[in-house]
Amino acid sequence: MKALCWHGKSDVRVDTVPDPKIQDPGDVILRITATAICGSDLHLFDGYQPTMEAGDILGHEPMGVVVEVGSGVKNLKKGDRVVVPFVIACGECFFCKRTEYSMCDTTNPNAEIARKAMGASPAGLFGFSHMLGGYAGGQAQYLRVPHADVGPIKIESGLPDEKVLFLSDIFPTGYMAAENCAIEPGDTVAVWGCGPVGQFAIRSAWMLGAGRVIAIDRVPERLAMAAKGKAEIINFDEVKVYDQLMEMTAGRGPARCIDAVGCEAHGMGSFDAMVDKAKAALHLATDRAHVVREAIMCCRKGGTISTPGVYVGMLDKIPFGAAMNKGLTFKMGQTHVQRYLKPLLAKIEAGDIDPSFVITHKVKLADAPDAYVTFRDKKDGCIKVVLDPS
Ligand SMILES: NC(=O)c1ccc[n+]([C@@H]2O[C@H](COP(=O)([O-])OP(=O)(O)OC[C@H]3O[C@@H](n4cnc5c(N)ncnc54)[C@H](O)[C@@H]3O)[C@@H](O)[C@H]2O)c1
Ligand SMILES: [Zn+2]
Ligand SMILES: [Zn+2]
User: Which of 6, 63, 122, 194 could be cross-linked to 83 through a Cys-Cys bond (beta carbons 3.0 to 4.6 Å apart)?
Assistant: First the structure.
C-alpha cells in the first residue's frame, strides 16, 4: 500500500510499504477513505518529538471501511464505516474504566521509555513516535486498528466523511479543552491559537456557556475563521496580548484560558520567545513555552488554564509563582477521545455543528508531502488538510 512516512526533520515521503495485517484477535483492518493532517503531526515534521524512526507511518485522524475483522471483535463487521480515535485504549484497565482513555495503562508496548521520560506511560497513539507505542499511523491506504471494540465509532447515518472525520481528534480535543476550563455561565474565555484545535475550542466554549470568547493568533485567515465563530480577535503581531486582554476585561483578565498552540509557539518581539527559539534550534530545549507563560500572566485570579496544545519535555522559565499566588487551576492532556465520540456525533447529527467548516485543502495522499509544507508554513490560506488515499 501507499503510506506517508517520516524520514527525518522536514522529510516525509509517500512510500510503498507492506499492507497491515491482523496481529491480535481484537484488531480490524480499515481501508482508509479520508485522513487528515494535524498540528500534532507538525511537531513530528519539525523534529520536536523524540523517538521517531525513518519509515514510521504518520497520521492519527483517519476514517474508513472495515475490510478485515479479528476473531475477537464483537461490535464491528466487514463493510462498517467508522471513525478512529487517535488514542488507542483497552477499555478495561483502571484508567479506561474512569474514561481516562488517553491514560490507558496497557496499549503502549514501549511504556518503559515513556516511564523514564514522564514517570508513567500514557496510552499508545497512532503514528506518534516509538515512545508512544510505535503504532503505524493512518495517513495510508490501510490501517490496523487494535482494540477495535473500544475505539472506532460506527457512522450509520450516511453523513459524509468530511462532517464526521474530525471526531477522530480535533473536535473532541477542542471540546475537552473547553470542558477542562470549567466555564461558568457568562465567563470570558481566551483561546491562544486559531488553528483547527483553537477553532473547535472556540465553538465548544460557546456550547459550554461562555459569555465572551477572545481568540489570539496572527494569521489573518485563521483570525477571520475565529471571528466567524463569533470570537473577538487579537493579532499578537500587532498588539501586546497582555495589555489588550486587560483592556478588554476591565483589568481582570480572562477567567478561562485555553492554550491551543503548544510547543512551537511564536512570540513576536518577546524576549522569552527569542530565547526559546534559539534554545530549540541548538537542541538545548524541547519546547517553546511562550504561550504557557503568557496565559499564566493574563489569566484572571482564581481562573483556569486548559492546555490541549502538545508539550514534549522540560519547559523553561514558567512563572509558577504567579500561577500559585493567583490561585490558578491547570487542566491538560491528550484527549480522552472515546469519551466524546457519541455525544459529539449526536451534535453533528442534530445539526448543532458542521465540523467541515475548518477544511481548506483536500488533496490526494500522493501530494501529502507538499501539503505538510503548505500547512506548516500557513501558505495558500491553509487551515486544515484532508487527504484522499484512494
Ligand atoms: N491534546 C490533544 O489531544 C491534542 C490533539 C490535537 C492537537 N493537539 C495540539 O494542539 C495544538 C494545536 O493544533 P492545531 O492542529 O490547531 O495546530 P496549528 O499548528 O494549525 O495551529 C497552531 C496555531 O497557533 C498559532 N500561534 C503560534 N504562536 C502563537 C502565539 N504566541 N499566540 C497565539 N497563537 C499562536 C499559529 O499561528 C497557529 O495558527 C498543537 O500543539 C497540537 O499538537 C493536541
Ligand atoms: Zn491530532
Ligand atoms: Zn486501558
Answer: 63
Q: Ligand 1 — pocket residues by CB below 6 A?
A: 38-40, 42-43, 169-170, 173, 192-198, 216-219, 222, 236, 260-262, 265-267, 290-291, 308-310, 334-335
* Side chain identity at residue 299, one-letter code: C
Neighbours of ion ligand 2 (CB under 5 A): 38, 40, 169
Which ligand sits nearest to residue 100's alpha carbon?
3
CA distance linking residue 389 with residue 364, whole number of Å: 6
| Strands, E assignment, 106-242 | 124-125, 142-145, 153-154, 188-192, 212-217, 232-235
- In 3-state terms the chain splits into helix, strand, coil percentages (rounded to 5) of 30, 20, 45
Convert the pLDDT of each residue in 262-306 to its tens digit: 999 998 778 898 888 888 888 888 899 999 999 999 999 999 999
pTM (2 d.p.): 0.97
Ligand nearest to the CA of 147: 3
Question: What's the rounded mean pLDDT across residues 43-67?
Answer: 96
As a whole number of angstroms, the distance between CA 149 and CA 7 comes to: 32
